[in-house]
TrEMBL record:
<dbReference type="InterPro" id="IPR036388">
    <property type="entry name" value="WH-like_DNA-bd_sf"/>
</dbReference>
<dbReference type="InterPro" id="IPR001789">
    <property type="entry name" value="Sig_transdc_resp-reg_receiver"/>
</dbReference>
<dbReference type="InterPro" id="IPR005561">
    <property type="entry name" value="ANTAR"/>
</dbReference>
<protein>
    <submittedName>
        <fullName>Transcriptional regulator</fullName>
    </submittedName>
</protein>
<dbReference type="Pfam" id="PF03861">
    <property type="entry name" value="ANTAR"/>
</dbReference>
<dbReference type="Pfam" id="PF00072">
    <property type="entry name" value="Response_reg"/>
</dbReference>
<dbReference type="GO" id="GO:0003723">
    <property type="term" value="F:RNA binding"/>
</dbReference>
<feature type="domain" description="Response regulatory">
    <location>
        <begin position="10"/>
        <end position="124"/>
    </location>
</feature>
<keyword id="KW-0597">Phosphoprotein</keyword>
<feature type="domain" description="ANTAR">
    <location>
        <begin position="130"/>
        <end position="191"/>
    </location>
</feature>
<dbReference type="GO" id="GO:0000160">
    <property type="term" value="P:phosphorelay signal transduction system"/>
</dbReference>
<feature type="modified residue" description="4-aspartylphosphate">
    <location>
        <position position="60"/>
    </location>
</feature>
<dbReference type="InterPro" id="IPR011006">
    <property type="entry name" value="CheY-like_superfamily"/>
</dbReference>
<dbReference type="InterPro" id="IPR008327">
    <property type="entry name" value="Sig_transdc_resp-reg_antiterm"/>
</dbReference>
Length: 207
């Protein structure tokens, strides 16, 4: 995603100094970005980010009420947008806090126009890569859970109907194709039916 794309990148900026916000807005606009909102403190920045859903947030590191790093931590935790910190400070403690908060990039005051676009583009790329990796992790977890369910259902079919492993799998596959449901859904149905049947048998009065 770049500022030259058909839809401009939407950016929220937060700094407690109005003149800094004005300079930053003008620079971003001249580069083709769309500044969708401004805030003077971290708390307002987070609220606006939740409301406006920007593509990126630029936060000053030193702001009243909630500072930029604390605001960045909330934005990162809620996966709202990548954060670029605007700072005149280089203390190791602040840098380490920012790293733990998930900050994706830095602009050092006084910032130059030539520095802005590379920092923004890199922050967006990092954020998109993290999102892609998180989706992969979820997909792998889902696949692993589905595999476990299928194995359990297959075992039940083998036990109840005296099928071989291959026969049990083929039966599940046939059911999946006939019903147009996933193998996981078929496995869940088999497990549920077996659980209900076992529960019914256990509650039946003995004669």
């Amino acid at each position: 995603m770049t500022a030259t794309a058909a839809t401009p990148i939407r950016i929220l900026i937060a700094d407690d100094e109005p003149i800094i916000r004005l300079d930053l807005r003008e620079l971003l606009t001249s580069l083709g970005y769309d500044v969708v909102g401004e805030a003077a403190d971290g708390r307002t920045a987070v609220e606006l980010a939740r409301k406006l859903k920007p593509d990126l947030v630029i936060l000053d590191i030193k702001m009243p009420e909630v500072d930029g790093i604390d605001a960045a931590e909330v934005l990162h935790r809620e996966r709202l947008a990548p954060v670029v910190l605007l700072t005149a400070y280089s203390e190791r403690e602040l840098v380490e806090r920012a790293r733990r908060a998930g900050v994706a990039g830095y602009l050092v005051k006084p910032f130059r126009e030539s520095e802005i676009m590379p920092v923004i583009e890199l922050a967006l790329a990092r954020f998109q890569e993290v999102q892609r990796l998180e989706r992969q992790v979820v997909e792998l977890q889902d696949a692993l859970e589905a595999r476990k369910l299928i194995e359990r259902a297959k075992g039940i079919l083998m036990q109840v109907h005296g099928l071989s492993e291959a026969e049990a799998f083929q039966r599940m596959r046939r059911l999946s194709m006939d019903s147009r449901k996933s193998m996981r859904e078929i496995a869940e149905a088999i497990l549920l039916a077996h659980q209900l049947e076992s529960s019914t048998r256990s509650t039946e009065p003995r004669t």
